[in-house]
């Protein structure tokens, strides 16, 4: 549903509007009060109690006021509430499993020198603070120097990946000979990709810089505190998780336990990433739509209320995005040889349909309009398709930058921890490197949800109202470039 244009009407008494508006803000909504006449946008500034109040601001040409739809008046569907409950129960169940594995690890592992817990505990436990330090430092670099961070991501990541691959291959073990080539291929692929996307860097840098400005300086400390808190809590769970992983190594079904624990950490950290994404998207959307500076606490409360949507997005979002990426790659190759890829169009249609119901842009509508994840994803996708912005969003480099930063974080963690293990216990270095890379990648992706949320919000809000005075010519220039390239 598009956002309505501003209409010139006579303003009602300011006192009545203020009380109703404050009620809406306490409820976490950015919508105008029903029956309220549209006035020039005002800046929401926190008073001494932390509440929002109105202050003057230069009016925008076409302020966006998201409508209060019927879907936002009703609670989230039961399925998302059930999924949030399942997520919490799954955490409780895995906590019991980890305790069981950790308690039994000492007696069962002491028989074999290489399975003693201390050999694994020290490097894997050290990988958590290393990954946390890298992720938060990279986030601060991105917020302070967005263009520099975007360019460095595509060159630091393949360099660190190559170094990590050589370290793993030097272990000369079966695990190293399996995991090392994967890192080597990843390094080569990222290097080729960095050369290929060089023409897109100027547009993506401008867009990243402009979208990050939607989170005002007054709101950054609160959101940084929330991001750091979510990262530390995820790190604490990772430390606890490592004890279960080490305990599983000494058991007969070690591979099954390890896969289950890896799936647990992936979903848990994915939910944490969405819980960072949601309040940042709401804060940026509030400023773009109404020119208001939302209290970070209200944005965080809205994100917590959307836990079910966060769980669903973390569960299906990455898989759908990967399938669509494969579909786009097949479609590009199919242009040259349609015989070999006769089903490329059908596969691309299926992946686009899945992507329309599960995408990161939907999180913007989830937190701004208080609707569930699937209809929010469809609404966001429809608005992008209607305004022909899907090509602009697909060619943006913020998503690849966040992925590259995650790979760089995993490789940095691998090098730091793997070097230590290689020098002390070479025979287990490859396995330690694998788990350290996994932890480093996931921890870094939590922090990098911030820039991804800002750019996604920028795309969605532009699709709703391109005439909003917050937007410059960045998107329109990119549309003309793509149209000229297709002509």
Q: Key features?
A:
487 residues, mainly alpha, two-stranded antiparallel sheet, 18 helices, 2 strands, 2% strand, globular, disordered N terminus
Descriptive account of the structure:
It is built from 18 helices and 2 strands. It has 487 residues and is an all-alpha fold. Strands 1-2 form a two-stranded antiparallel ribbon. Strand 1 and strand 2 form a beta hairpin. The protein starts with 13 loop residues before the first helix and ends with a helix. The N terminus is likely disordered.
Give the arrangement of secondary structure elements.
Blueprint: H1 14-26, E1 43-46, E2 52-55, H2 78-109, H3 117-144, H4 146-169, H5 174-196, H6 201-212, H7 220-249, H8 254-290, H9 296-305, H10 307-334, H11 344-357, H12 362-369, H13 373-386, H14 390-394, H15 398-424, H16 429-447, H17 449-464, H18 474-486
Helix pairs in contact: 2-7, 2-10, 3-4, 3-7, 3-15, 3-16, 4-5, 4-6, 4-15, 5-16, 6-17, 7-8, 7-16, 8-9, 8-10, 8-12, 8-16, 8-17, 10-11, 12-13, 13-17, 15-16
Judging from the principal axes of the Cα atoms, what is the shape?
Answer: globular
Estimate the strand proportion.
under 5%
Strand runs, count: 2
Largest sheet: 2 strands, antiparallel
Tell me the distance between the termini: 31 Å
In the predicted model, the low-confidence regions spanning at least 5 consecutive residues are 1-74
Average pLDDT score: 81
How are the strands of the biggest sheet laid out side by side?
1-2
Radius of gyration: 24 Å
The SS-based structural class is: mainly alpha
